[in-house]
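Final report, closing paragraph on structural work. Over the funding period we assembled a curated collection of sequence-structure pairs, and we close with a single example.
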Amino acid sequence: MVENNNNGDKSPEEMVTLDEKGQFLEQTVPGLLSSYEIEIGRSSDTLALIIDPKDLLGIFNILKHDSQTYFDFLVCISVVDYIEYIQIVYHLLSTTKQHKLVVKADLDAGQPSISSLTSLWLGADWYEREGHDLFGVWFEGHPNLEPLLLYEGFEGHPGLKSYPLPEYKEW
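Its predicted structure, as stored:
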C-alpha cells in the first residue's frame, strides 16, 4: 500500500526535517553572515550554505569564532566534478555545541581556485592536497601543495570526469 504524504508542491529538500540544533543554525546563521551573499538549503538532515568562493575566509572565520556557532572542527573537505563546474564541500562540526553544517562553493572548471583553510584548521592540509592531486584545485595560500596521493610529475588529475581512463581488458 502506498501512502499519500500530502506534501503538495514541496521539494525533497523542503521535506527534510532539521533537528533542534539545525533549526537554531537556520535561524542564526543568516544574521551572522548578513554582509555576505549566501544561499541556504538543506543537505540530508543538515543545514547547507552555498557561498561565493571569494567570501570563504571571511565566512569561515565567523563560523569558527562566533560564540553562537563555534565550529571548531573541520570534519572533511570533498571535491565534486560536475563537468561545468567544480564544487568544494566543507563539513563542519562544533564539538562543544554539538551542531553541524555543510558549506559549498562552486568553482570555475577551467581554473578551479579557492582560498586555503589551513590558517583556520590545520586539518585542512591533507584534504586540500588531495583535492589538488585528484581534481587540480588550487588552494591559494596553502603552505605546501606537494602531491599527497600521486607521484611527483604525474600528468593530469584522475578525479576529473574528463580524465582518460586506460583501456581495460578481461583475460
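The first helix runs from residue 12 to 15. Confidence is low (pLDDT under 50) at residues 1-7. We thank the funder for supporting this effort.
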